[in-house]
């Protein structure tokens, strides 16, 4: 996904572009101030778009959260929606279908133009109208209308169905506010010409090379940036990223160091490995229309037998050196209402005898041929080892005969969701830190996965949890959702991971931004 680029060349370009002194950009800077200066982050991730309407990926969000504002946001360590560009937001109908936000006074975009409710209406309507395939307009399917008041002070959302999660939906990077007099209504704004109202403005963007953001003088809000400049350098390989942080050419190496790289850097001179709560997950997906099996009963038995055979702990230990944890629900630990229904249903360890019985009872001949797809770059270099381990486990059981196939993400992301792959690898980062975001996107009939899974009881339970703000109602619903999800197994959770970064000595604040929201808050990071 990322073009080959030597890290030192990218650094030189960044410093020339911003006029920064080399000393101000190095992790070993002798700047005695705890604020100001330049923070350089290295990553193998690369953004798709800095226009919110064209973004639904973590690296794009990293820039969007820095350069724009949302109506609502999630505070560090929190899991609730709190005001950002809005002064306040509330449901104004008893059935949670009308939601009104009052805007803060005096907000402006970095170009000096006023930010008001009309810009909010424009931002949401263009997101739906453009419906970019790389965007998240699908998350707005429940939005019937959005309307700004004539004085630009309030904006009202009318929803088709009750939705208590709507405030958290508004915190998603895809729904940041853009200026209505700058951005086109029917197409994306070029990523090198973005205008927002956030803590930073865009100084330079070169795809495959770097993003440079400067602290904004026009930002009006809480927690202004503790640094003057952020440079994000893109690396084609984790090994080059590791070398860059070792040499002090980047201050932070975050996404995606290999497990071996993390081990090597832990305790290395001048480098600290920091981690925090993460709710990134990996899972195996079954297209219930394409998978093996003569009928629904046989297909279900095959999915259940795979769930009984996979050894998650062996994957965590042998592939990821213990840097990930086995996952036994699609809702990861650290998110409210998370359970362990897959281990309740099938046990924590592999049980090939039980899997054999499951297949025999359904009349399934063994070994079952299985074609499993994975993608080499998008989820990191360890993906190949992970799926080699899954193949080994399934083949060694004598119950399956697995063929592995792979392709790069640009083709993979289209084929997987258009009935091309019977089984395939996926990962998930939260749109917002709520259990709904780990269930309704996967289990509803109109899921983006397009796996032809439809369970009426599951649909009813998801509607219940979405419409209620009562913790008891939601807890009961999510318990049953996870139980049905484990029994039907249209997706099988494999692991979840903490957020991990290698950080140069003297760099402060990275651990403060590691929480289940997955908002990388550059503005909290500074140097001693």
Describe how the helices and strands are arranged.
Layout: H1 7-18, H2 22-25, E1 38-43, H3 58-67, E2 72-74, E3 81-83, E4 86-91, E5 98-103, H4 117-130, E6 143-148, E7 154-159, H5 166-169, E8 200-206, E9 210-215, E10 229-234, H6 238-247, E11 252-253, H7 259-265, E12 271-286, H8 296-309, H9 312-318, E13 324-326, H10 341-346, H11 352-361, E14 368-374, H12 383-396, E15 400-406, H13 409-415, E16 423-428, H14 440-443, H15 456-467, H16 471-488, E17 491-504, E18 507-508, E19 526-527
Parallel strand pairs: 1-10, 1-11, 14-15, 14-16
Antiparallel strand pairs: 2-3, 4-5, 5-7, 6-7, 8-9, 9-10, 11-17, 12-16, 12-17, 13-17, 18-19
Helix pairs in contact: 8-11, 15-16
Task: Offer a few descriptive terms.
528 residues; single chain; four-stranded antiparallel beta sheet; 22% strand; eleven-stranded mixed beta sheet; disordered N terminus; 16 helices
Radius of gyration: 23 Å
What percent strand?
15-25%
Shape: globular
For the sheet with most strands, the description reads: 11 strands, mixed
Q: What is the number of helices? A: 16
Helix content: 25-40%
Low-confidence stretches: 1-33
**Count of extended strands:** 19
> Helix/strand-derived class?
alpha+beta
N-C termini distance: 35 Å
Q: Could you report the average pLDDT, rounded to the nearest whole number?
A: 92
